[in-house]
Amino acid sequence: MNGEDMDWVLALLGGYLLGSVPFGLLLAILAGKGDIRKIGSGNIGATNVLRTGSKGLAAAVLVLDAAKGFAAVYLAWRWLPDVAVFAALGAVLGHCFPVWLKFKGGKGVATTLGVALGLAPVLGLVYALVWLGMLAITRISSLGGMSAVVATPIAAALLGRMEFVPVLTAIALIVVWLHRENIARLRAGTEPRVGRKT
Predict the structure, then answer these.
(1) Disulfide-capable partner of 106 in 32, 45, 63, 138 (CB 3.0 to 4.6 Å)?
(2) CA proximity to 15, closest of 85, 119, 100, 99
(3) 161 burial class (0-12, 13-18, 19+ CB within 10 angstroms)?
(4) How confident is the model over 1-52, as pLDDT tens digits?
(5) Residue 170 lies in a domain
């Protein structure tokens, strides 16, 4: 492999390392909430952190999880612009399957917001609007997140940003697959709404 052939590997690994920082776990421990993996769904994302009763802590986790996705793509645009999409994929993979936590991480919704913003601000805006809009209508976090990840590659195609469609589609498939238990509860009518602790 020459240098150019290795660029996508570096972008993927760099994105993965940034994405794998488990802010939900770290902040919960620092805030005295204990191991977030032993609370609620066991997920390290902002929605489960909210179940600790701390809205501020959950908001901080959401912002930081999005920020690491954005940072991965931003840095790739600066140093490896031709393969920045691989940094986007790497960041989501790192968040969802962090090596430090035996590959058991979050579900990637907030981190995908960050990578969408990093790839193109308009895609991040679409993502945020769909996510927040569906959340406001249904009060179901998982439905808002899944709607956003599905809408974003469609938006990229409609906006003519076809270079982003494959990676955004791959990310959407990963995130939806990680929500398979949520989907089962949605079908059964038992998926909890935002505000409940269980």
Answers:
(1) 45
(2) 85
(3) middle
(4) 455 678 999 999 999 999 999 999 999 999 888 888 888 777 888 888 888 7
(5) yes
- What span, in angstroms and rounded, lies between the C-alpha atoms of 37 and 100? 14
88 located within any domain: yes
Mean pLDDT taken over the chain: 92
Instruction: Please give the pLDDT value at position 197.
Output: 45
Query: How far is it, in rounded angstroms, from Cα 37 to Cα 2?
Result: 42
Instruction: Please tell me whether residue 196 adopts helix, strand or coil conformation.
Output: strand
Say if CB 84 and CB 73 are below 8 A apart: yes
Domain that holds residue 33: 3-188
**Comparing C-alpha atoms, which of 24, 91, 105 is closest to residue 59?**
24
Cα–Cα distance measured from residue 167 to residue 60, given in angstroms and rounded to the nearest whole number: 27
Cβ-in-10-Å burial (0-12, 13-18, 19+) of 31 comes to middle
Write down the pLDDT at residue 198.
Answer: 42
Contact call for residues 140 and 193 (beta carbons, < 8 A): yes
**Total domains, the chain:** 1
CB-CB contact of 101 with 26 (8 Å): no
Per-residue model confidence as pLDDT tens digits over 59-88: 999 999 999 999 999 999 999 999 999 999
Over residues 100-127, the mean pLDDT reads 96
**197 in a structural domain:** no
